[in-house]
């Protein structure tokens, strides 16, 4: 099943103009070029996990940006991996290819002054699909002196026929405002698919699990790249408070000790920062309980992936 069909589209809003445009924009690019950061800047709020380590985005996260003229449904693709053998890698590749198929326009994100073979490979796949490609040249804040950018942009323009080439910085939020306008030009005339005030079709449970995973990833640095996932077991409202119980699944007993940390400090700190962010996101106090459990070699087994909801 196509992820976009999970939620029935909302009935068309009354009163939208006949020039209204709506469609799907895939955010594509190799790991760590800054796709999640850019998406968050485009949506003006945080919906997708951001971390300094590559390949942290496992799920396709749909962010929605609506204005009076358009509704852009962003698909944040996992990194297109080269040659991954484990089940998780296969899943990620399938997900990436699926969102390329869905998109009306591709926002291809690269790093300023850094074009490598993997960028070339992704560009070739995009060109084959024949959909418009908007090239987002990210991280321009790192370019010094600024004059180096212009010849680089000219060089890029010769690599393919891009609909647009935009230098920007997702982190510094510079030159971001123009991007939705450029994307909207390439979307079909259509009424909005979702209510205009909706920014994501992900459930609050999913968002809660992503917040926990992000806090873990930030604290654990190199120690647990793929080896953990988060499952929400309870998500209930009681007397104005959200009661959330979550299990952090790891692959090995040794990793369990790492996640918990000495005297439980690590886990306590993860819980504290996750709880604060959830309280802000959901607009009410949160009571969060975290457990760490071992699921042997889960990321190697298709069946275990399915149990945890990574079906594609
Ligand atoms: N200097 C600078 N750093 C950036 C910019 N955008 C993102 N970064 C950093 O680049 C790193 C990767 O950013 P992400 O947004 O997680 O990258 P991603 O492409 O979504 O990564 P994957 O999930 O691995 O595919 C983080 O450390 C960001 O802070 C930018 O405009 N300028």
TrEMBL record:
Residues 138-141 are annotated as: G4. Residues 55-59 are annotated as: G2. Residues 212-296 form the KH type-2 domain. Residues 29-36 are annotated as: G1. Residues 21-189 form the Era-type G domain. It holds the Pfam family KH_2. The keyword Protease does not apply. Residues 168-170 are annotated as: G5. One of its GO terms (molecular function) is GTP binding. It is a peripheral membrane protein. One of its GO terms (cellular component) is cytosol. It is found in: Cytoplasm; Cell membrane. Residues 76-79 are annotated as: G3. One of its GO terms (biological process) is ribosomal small subunit assembly. Its main location: cytoplasm. Keywords: Cell membrane, Cytoplasm, GTP-binding, Membrane, Nucleotide-binding, Ribosome biogenesis, RNA-binding, rRNA-binding. PANTHER family: GTPASE ERA, GTPASE ERA, MITOCHONDRIAL. Monomer. An essential GTPase that binds both GDP and GTP, with rapid nucleotide exchange. Plays a role in 16S rRNA processing and 30S ribosomal subunit biogenesis and possibly also in cell cycle regulation and energy metabolism. Belongs to the TRAFAC class TrmE-Era-EngA-EngB-Septin-like GTPase superfamily. Era GTPase family. This is GTPase Era. It comes from Povalibacter uvarum.
């Amino acid at each position: 099943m196509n992820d976009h069909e999970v939620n029935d589209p909302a009935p068309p809003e009354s009163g939208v103009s006949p020039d209204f445009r709506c469609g799907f924009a895939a955010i594509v690019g190799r790991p760590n070029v800054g796709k999640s950061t850019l998406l968050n800047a485009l949506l003006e709020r945080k919906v997708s996990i951001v971390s300094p380590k590559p390949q942290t985005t496992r799920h396709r996260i749909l962010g929605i940006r609506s204005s009076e003229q358009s509704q852009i449904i962003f698909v944040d693709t996992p990194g297109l991996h080269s040659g991954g053998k484990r089940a998780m890698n296969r899943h990620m590749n399938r997900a990436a290819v699926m969102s390329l198929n869905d998109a009306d326009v591709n926002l291809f994100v690269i790093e300023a002054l850094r074009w490598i073979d993997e960028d070339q490979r992704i560009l070739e796949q995009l060109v084959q699909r024949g959909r418009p490609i908007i090239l987002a040249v990210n991280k321009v804040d790192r370019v010094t002196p600024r004059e180096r950018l212009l010849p680089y942009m000219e060089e890029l323009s010769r690599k393919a026929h891009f609909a647009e080439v935009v230098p920007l910085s997702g982190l510094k939020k510079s030159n971001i405002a123009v991007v939705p306008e450029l994307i909207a030009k390439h979307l079909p005339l259509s009424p909005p698919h979702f209510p205009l005030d909706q920014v994501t079709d992900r459930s609050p449970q999913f968002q809660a699990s992503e917040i926990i995973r992000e806090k873990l990833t930030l604290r654990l640095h190199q120690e647990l790249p793929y080896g953990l996932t988060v499952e929400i077991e309870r998500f209930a409202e009681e007397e104005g408070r959200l009661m959330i119980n979550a299990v952090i699944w790891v692959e090995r007993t040794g990793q369990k000790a790492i996640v918990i940390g000495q005297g439980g400090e690590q886990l306590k700190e993860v819980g504290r920062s996750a709880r604060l962010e959830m309280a802000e996101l959901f607009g009410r106090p949160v009571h969060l309980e975290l457990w760490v459990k071992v699921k042997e070699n889960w990321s190697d087994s298709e069946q275990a992936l399915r149990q945890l909801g990574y079906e594609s």
